[in-house]
Specification:
The complex is a heterodimer. Chain A folds into two domains: 301 residues, MetI-like fold; 45 residues, no CATH class. Chain A is flat. Chain A is mainly α. Helices cover 72% and strands 0% of the residues of chain A. By secondary structure, chain B is mainly alpha-helical. Chain B has one domain: MetI-like fold (Orthogonal Bundle), CATH 1.10.3720.10. Helices cover 79% and strands 0% of the residues of chain B. Chain B has 14 helices and no strands. The longest helix of chain B is centred in the N-terminal third of the chain and has 34 residues. The two termini of chain B are 24 Å apart. The chains are: A mainly alpha, B mainly alpha. The interface between A and B is large, with 108 and 101 residues.
Chain lengths: 367, 274
């Protein structure tokens, strides 16, 4: 089904006649509108204005100094800008893979998988942070090992990542119709598995041979950047997949099948057919994911340990400045995040008109 | 059709493998670690951690505040959705996009600004505090900030249903001699119930888990303004990991049953529509 059929509007004459029946008396209309606007004014508009007024109270020069003159605040911005992109990219890759799986194929357990993807939304952020402390913290399940010889996992981790990156490359390079496969491509699974094994071995050997990682040194995950990335990735886990699934479902599989039947490779099909079709859904998911990741507080707060200048992200910096009664500095950082939220809303409103009507806040809004 | 796809479209095993792998690593493994840790406690230890007087006060406050906020959100959400769908006024598009601000704004920023608005010298506090209304560092403050955080949910679930509402039903109600209020009460409102309940459940679930904004406005006094997530953090700061985990498992249990409930409701309302 295409976007046009979904958003088809009834003819104008019908709308005009409907309007009359659905019309409330004028005093009800104005009363309710006024009430709704007053509620929004008190709950949303006044707070937002208040943030900027408080931030700029002492003038632009002080505001600037609050943001860029304080080394700890500056570091918190740098840290947020390192943590968020990593979490964003991993969730983006996952989101595309999961959306492809769920929207294009039918298999047993599909509904359960869809529900599991939404799971992080219903976990309290504090509990999410606690989970990672339970696994990686000093008293956690992996704590003693990480403390003794944490860097011993690095060769395995890096090699696994490399082998994992090899698999999609292999998938994208392989000709799709069985007829077109020549030479070693006649056994694509063998190529994929054998190739990734070779890549794993190669990376492992290089790291061991050049002794890239220190021995018997503790690897910090909790109270350090990796923990922040894990917590952020957990909390923003469903966003991209959730926005992409309805978009991909609305687009359907016809164009992909046509491309394949004309002899396109997996890569050509993905890059020339799938990506242009889901482009706006992708951007939409990234924007929402980014806004949440930048502003995440609870989960990150539990795993960060609040070391100023080391593990404080921007929202944590706001809390610390608040506790130090440095309100101007606090509101300066808050105003940056508010600006980001407003930009997110603007982009979201602009994008919503480009998406099929099914994509929305909760994924299943209109069906 | 779908089973044909699996033979023709590439990437089934690759995406299935990756999705399950990443999901287990980042979500399922940590959640089961939480339950595993709680399972290592004996029942008495678990009960002792979960059912202290301080914990009970925290549960009552957490669920009570989330419940009140969700009820308020349902009423306000219905009002705002109604106004946005039925009436026209200048700046309607802007107002419509403003609804999502609580979702886009970091919770810490929301908490910070609410804390500063309602204190004695704040913009709104200077009028409210002399009246005896303390909108900061009180239980009322927690409800207030949860109303802010949960505002978009009901609006966004009710709005599309209201837009798609068949005008013929209203026409029939009016032509049978019903007043405008009767039409609303007996024709429109019942069709909105599933959406209202879904929105209510979403707002409630969000309110139960909320931490970032509440920690700024509540003052975090044990027995008085301490919600369950704050209690977990307090236990963690005492390095009492088992107690923290036990309380976390209670919260997880509640939020998982909320999730199941929301899914059932959505399925029910979908069947209702057809």
């Amino acid at each position: 089904m295409s976007a046009e059929t979904i958003s088809e509007k009834p003819p104008a004459i019908a709308v005009a006649s409907v309007r009359k029946i659905q019309q409330d008396p004028a005093w009800v209309r104005w009363g309710l509108t006024f009430l709704a606007l007053a509620v929004l004014g008190v709950l949303v508009v006044i707070p937002v204005i208040n943030i900027f007024v408080e931030a700029l109270r002492a003038g632009v020069a002080v505001y600037w100094n609050n943001l860029f003159g304080d080394p700890d605040t500056l570091h918190s911005m740098v840290l947020t800008l390192t943590v968020v992109p990593i979490a964003l990219v991993t969730n983006l890759v996952f989101g595309v893979a999961a959306a492809w799986l769920i929207s294009k194929f039918d298999f047993p357990g599909r509904t359960v998988l869809t529900a599991l993807i939404d799971l992080p939304f219903s976990v309290s952020p504090v509990v999410a942070g606690l989970m990672f402390v339970l696994i990686f913290g000093l008293q956690g399940y992996l704590g003693p090992f990480l403390r003794r010889d944490g860097y011993a996992v690095m060769p395995y981790l890096i090699s696994l990542l490399a082998a994992g990156a090899f698999l999609p490359l292999c998938f994208l390079a392989c000709p799709v119709p069985a007829r077109a496969r020549r030479g070693f491509w006649r056994h694509p699974r063998l190529v994929a598995l054998g190739g990734s094994a070779v890549v794993f071995g190669l990376f492992f050997f290089i790291q061991q041979f050049f002794e890239l990682w220190p021995h018997h040194k503790s690897l910090k995950i909790i109270f350090a950047t990796p923990g922040l990335v894990l917590a952020t990735a957990f909390v923003t886990f469903p966003f991209v997949a959730r926005e992409l699934i309805p978009v991909m479902e609305a687009v359907g599989v016809d164009e992909e099948l046509a491309a394949l039947s004309l002899g396109a490779s997996g890569w050509q099909m993905f890059w020339h057919i799938t990506v242009p079709n889901i482009k706006w859904g992708l951007v939409y998911g990234i924007i929402l994911c980014n806004a949440r990741a930048m502003g995440e507080f609870g989960a990150v707060s539990v795993v960060s340990g609040h070391i100023a200048g080391k593990t404080d992200t921007m929202p944590l910096r706001i809390e610390k400045l608040f506790q130090e009664y440095n309100l101007p500095g606090c509101f300066a950082v808050a105003s940056v995040l508010t600006l980001l939220a407003i930009l997110t809303l603007v982009a979201k409103t602009k994008l919503e008109s480009k998406l099929p009507a099914t994509a929305s806040l909760h994924g299943k809004k209109t069906k | 059709m779908a089973s044909v796809n699996r033979r023709v479209l590439p990437g089934f095993s690759l995406t299935l493998g990756f999705t399950v792998f990443y999901l287990s690593l980042l979500v399922l493994f940590p959640i089961s670690a939480c339950f595993f840790k709680a399972g290592s406690l004996s029942f008495e230890e678990f009960w002792k951690a979960v059912w202290t007087e301080r914990a009970r006060a925290a549960y009552v406050l957490t669920f009570g505040a989330a419940l009140i906020a969700a009820v308020v959100n349902t009423l306000l959400g219905l009002l705002i959705a109604w106004v946005l769908v039925r009436y026209t006024f200048p700046g309607k598009k802007l107002v419509d996009s403003l609804i999502d601000l609580p979702l886009a704004l970091p919770t810490a920023v929301g908490g910070l600004v609410y804390a500063s608005l309602y204190v004695e010298k704040g913009w709104l506090g200077q009028f409210l505090v002399p009246l005896g209304i303390h909108g900061a560092y009180s239980r009322f403050a927690i409800v207030l900030v949860l109303v802010f955080v949960g505002l978009p949910f009901v609006v966004r679930t009710v709005q599309p249903i209201l837009e798609d509402l068949d005008p013929e039903a209203e026409e029939a109600g009016a032509s049978l001699g019903g007043t405008r209020w009767q039409t609303f009460r007996y024709v429109i409102l019942p069709t909105l119930y599933p959406a209202l309940i879904t929105g209510f459940a979403l707002a409630f679930a969000r309110g139960v888990g909320e931490y970032g904004s509440v920690v700024f406005v509540s003052g975090n006094m044990p027995y008085k303004t301490e919600i369950a997530p704050i209690l977990i953090v307090a236990r963690l700061e005492e390095f009492a990991y088992s107690e923290a985990t036990a309380i976390a498992v209670v919260l997880l249990g509640v939020s998982f049953s909320m999730l199941v409930l929301i899914n059932l409701l959505e399925r029910w309302s979908m069947r209702h529509e057809r």
